[in-house]
Each structure stands twice: as C-alpha cells, then as structure tokens.
Known about the structure:
The protein is mostly helical.
Amino acid sequence: MIAHEGAPAHWRQRIPLAAIDKVVAARLGQTRVHGNAQPAVFNRQIAMYLAKHVGRWSTTRIGRFYNGRDHSTVCYAVKKIEMLRNSQPDVDELLVGLQDEIVSKCEGNRAEGGHTANHPAGQTGGMLVTDQFLDLVIDRLLARLHRASAKGRHDKPSTGYSGALPGLA
Length: 169
C-alpha cells in the first residue's frame, strides 16, 4: 500500500518503537525486561510515554512491543509520567532531552536514507501509514470483540463459534 500524497506528514514520519526504546535504554537503562523490578519499570514507563506522545503509537501496539503488556498498562504509565512531569521539573527536563534526542536521531536517519527499525524489509513511507491504519483496525476489532463478549455473558451461554465476527456483517 502506498501513502497518499495528501496524507498528513506525521503519518508518514512515525518514529519506530525500537528507536525510542534504544534512546531511553541508552540514557536510563534497560526497559524491555520481564517483571516489575525498579528501575526498569520507571524506564519502561518513560519509554511508553514517549512512544505515545513522540512516536504516536497506539497503546495496544506499545504494549505488544514491551513484552506483550496490556494497553491499560500503557495507559497507566502515560498518566503516571504525565503527573510526574507536571509535578517534578527534573522529570520534565529528562523528557524534553529524550524527546529532542529521539527526534534528532530519527531525522538524521531519514536524511541519510536510513531504514526504520520496525520494518525488517526497510520499507518506509507508505508502510507507516499502513501500520497506523492496521493499528486502528486492530484496536476497533478488539473493542468490538470485548463488547460482544461482555454482552454475551449477560444474555445466554455461548454455543461456540458462529462463523462471523460480531458487528462486522
């Protein structure tokens, strides 16, 4: 799929999760570890916040990247870092510094014709639009399935697979 020429620039220029994670890990320490031991949790929360606000990734996609965590974990991390940013000037300075470093490294890679880390085949441009579209579709399908399963629990016991996804007919 090729990006439309009229598509907003930020759709074509989403910063790869791996690039954000690499910058945060280099500055603060490991982020992608199993378990919830400090300081990895704080580092991961910082990376999740930046992935959401700088990289413009969905919470579902960010959670998958960080060892399959749920999107609600990402939402919690984003809210926690927002609170810390508003109450502690040193956290705000850290985030501004990391954001500047991430953006400058990614702009440098694009200027040099570098490939994005999230696309093994090195595809850019239209692929980023496609990924954003797929994230949106996945998020909406998961929400519909969740609503359908919640509704099904209140109606009658399920008899198994009906052959169609609810709400997609």
